Inverse folding.
C-alpha cells in the first residue's frame, strides 16, 4: 500500500445488505482520515446481496476496502479470525455490519493508545434501541488495567487492540459459537495488555437494535458449547489472577451474567431436558470456580438461585424464574383534599402511609411475565422447598424465607475457612 495503515477495521458480514452502507460510510468519514484506515470485510456466505455490496464498495475504494468471500460458518468468530490474518494495520477495530461508528471514534481511540502506550482502548458504546454497557464508561482512563477500568463489564469486540499484542499471543475468537465467542479473545487481551485506556466522553460506537436483523445475544445458546466456552474463559482468569479479592471481583461478572443470568427471562419456556442440562453445567461451574465468600456476598435472590442450582432443584428453580415482583402501579390521583397551609401536620393513614421495604432482588434481573409455579415434593435428604401456586411479592417472600434458612444451614454446616476481606462488587 502507498500509505501506512493505522487501523484495520474488521467486519464479519452475513445478510446485512440493508445496513452495510451506513456502517461502511461511518468508517469512510472517520476524522483520522480514510488514508489511515483499511476495511477487512469477510462475507460469511451471505444470500441477500451483501457480498455484492461489499464488492461495489471495494471497487469504489481500491486498496482501502478489502473483501473476501467464504461459505457460511454460522457465527462471527471464524470470519473475524480470517480477517485478523489479512489485516495490516497497527491497530485492529472490530465492527458489526448493522452498527456504525461515531465520526471521531478511531481518531480519539488511537490517540489514547499512543498517549498511554495502551494495547487496548475502550471507546464508549452507545445503545440505539438496546442496552449498552455503562460501568466502564463513567470516566476517561489514561492507562489503567482490567481492574481500574472495570473493563470486564464490556466483553464485546468493539474496541481498539494493538495488532502486535494479538499476533504475539495468538489471540483468536471462538469459532462456531453463537454467543460470547469474543470472550476467549477479549479477556486474555485485557490481562496481557501493558495498559488499557478508556474514552468515555465521546460516543465511539453505536450498538443498534434492528428489528429485521437477528441478534445472537437475543437467542438461547446450546448449553454445552456455551458453558464449555465459559469454562475456557474462567480457566484463563484463574490462571492469570491469584485467589483473593481481585480475582473475586472479576469472577462476580461471570457468576452474575453467564451462570445466574441463564436462569432468568425465558428459562421456564425451555424444554425440560435443556433446563436440566443448564442446571447440571452451572452447578459444575459453581463448584469449580466460585468460592463460598463470593457467593456469600450475593443478594438474597441470587444466593437462593445458587442454592437451588447446587441442589439440582429444577422445578423450584424454574418456579423462581417466573416469580418476580410486579411493577409498582402508577400512583392514583389524590382523592382527598390537600391540607391547608395552617392546618398543621396530618395523621398518617393506611392509604397514604410510607411504603414498606420490598424484598431485595438480584441486580439487573430481566423482568419476566409472572405465571403460576408448580409445587414439588422434596427429595429425601434435601431441603424441602415447596412452592405453592402463587404470584407476585407474597410468593417471592415465601421462597426467599426458605432460601435464607437453607443458606444459613449450608454455612453452619460448612468447615470454617480463613478470614477473607469482603468482596467489593461493582
Amino acid at each position: 500500500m502507498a500509505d501506512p495503515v493505522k487501523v484495520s477495521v474488521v467486519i464479519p458480514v452475513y445478510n446485512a445488505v440493508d445496513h452495510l452502507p451506513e456502517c461502511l460510510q461511518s468508517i469512510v468519514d472517520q476524522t483520522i482520515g480514510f488514508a489511515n484506515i483499511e476495511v477487512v470485510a469477510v462475507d460469511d456466505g451471505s444470500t441477500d446481496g451483501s457480498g455484492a455490496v461489499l464488492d461495489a464498495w471495494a471497487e469504489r475504494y481500491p486498496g482501502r476496502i478489502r473483501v473476501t468471500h467464504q461459505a457460511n460458518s454460522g457465527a462471527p468468530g471464524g470470519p473475524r479470525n480470517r480477517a485478523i490474518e489479512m489485516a495490516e494495520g497497527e491497530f485492529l477495530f472490530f465492527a458489526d455490519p448493522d452498527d456504525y461508528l461515531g465520526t471521531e471514534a478511531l481518531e480519539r481511540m488511537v490517540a489514547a493508545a499512543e498517549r498511554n502506550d495502551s494495547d487496548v482502548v475502550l471507546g464508549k458504546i452507545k445503545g440505539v434501541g438496546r442496552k449498552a454497557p455503562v460501568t466502564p464508561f463513567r470516566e476517561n482512563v489514561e492507562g489503567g488495567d482490567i481492574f481500574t477500568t472495570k473493563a470486564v463489564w464490556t466483553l464485546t469486540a468493539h474496541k481498539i487492540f494493538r495488532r502486535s499484542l494479538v499476533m504475539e499471543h495468538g489471540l483468536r475468537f471462538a469459532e462456531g459459537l453463537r454467543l460470547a465467542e469474543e470472550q476467549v479473545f477479549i479477556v486474555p487481551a485485557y490481562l496481557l495488555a501493558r495498559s488499557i485506556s478508556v474514552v468515555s466522553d465521546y460516543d465511539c460506537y453505536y450498538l443498534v437494535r434492528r428489528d429485521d436483523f437477528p441478534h445472537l445475544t437475543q437467542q438461547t445458546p446450546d448449553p454445552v458449547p456455551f458453558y464449555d466456552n465459559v469454562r475456557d474463559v474462567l480457566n484463563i482468569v484463574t490462571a492469570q489472577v491469584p485467589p483473593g479479592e481481585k480475582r473475586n471481583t472479576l469472577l462476580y461478572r461471570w457468576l452474575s451474567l453467564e451462570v445466574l443470568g441463564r436462569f432468568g427471562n425465558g428459562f421456564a419456556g425451555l424444554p425440560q431436558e435443556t433446563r436440566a442440562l443448564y442446571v447440571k453445567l452451572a452447578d459444575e461451574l459453581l463448584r469449580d470456580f466460585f468460592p463460598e465468600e463470593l457467593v456469600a456476598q450475593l443478594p438474597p435472590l441470587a444466593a437462593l438461585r445458587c442454592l437451588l442450582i447446587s441442589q439440582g432443584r429444577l422445578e423450584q428453580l424454574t418456579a423462581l424464574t417466573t416469580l418476580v415482583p410486579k411493577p409498582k402501579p402508577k400512583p392514583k390521583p389524590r382523592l382527598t383534599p390537600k391540607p391547608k397551609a395552617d392546618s398543621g401536620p396530618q395523621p398518617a393513614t393506611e392509604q397514604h402511609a410510607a411504603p414498606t421495604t420490598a424484598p431485595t432482588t438480584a441486580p439487573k434481573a430481566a423482568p419476566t411475565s409472572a405465571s403460576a409455579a408448580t409445587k414439588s415434593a422434596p427429595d429425601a435428604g434435601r431441603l424441602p422447598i415447596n412452592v405453592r401456586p402463587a404470584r407476585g411479592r407474597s410468593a417471592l417472600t415465601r421462597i426467599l424465607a426458605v432460601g435464607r434458612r437453607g443458606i444459613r444451614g449450608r454455612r453452619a454446616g460448612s468447615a470454617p475457612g480463613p478470614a477473607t476481606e469482603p468482596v467489593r462488587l461493582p
Summary: The radius of gyration is 25 Å. The first strand starts at residue 7 and ends at 13.
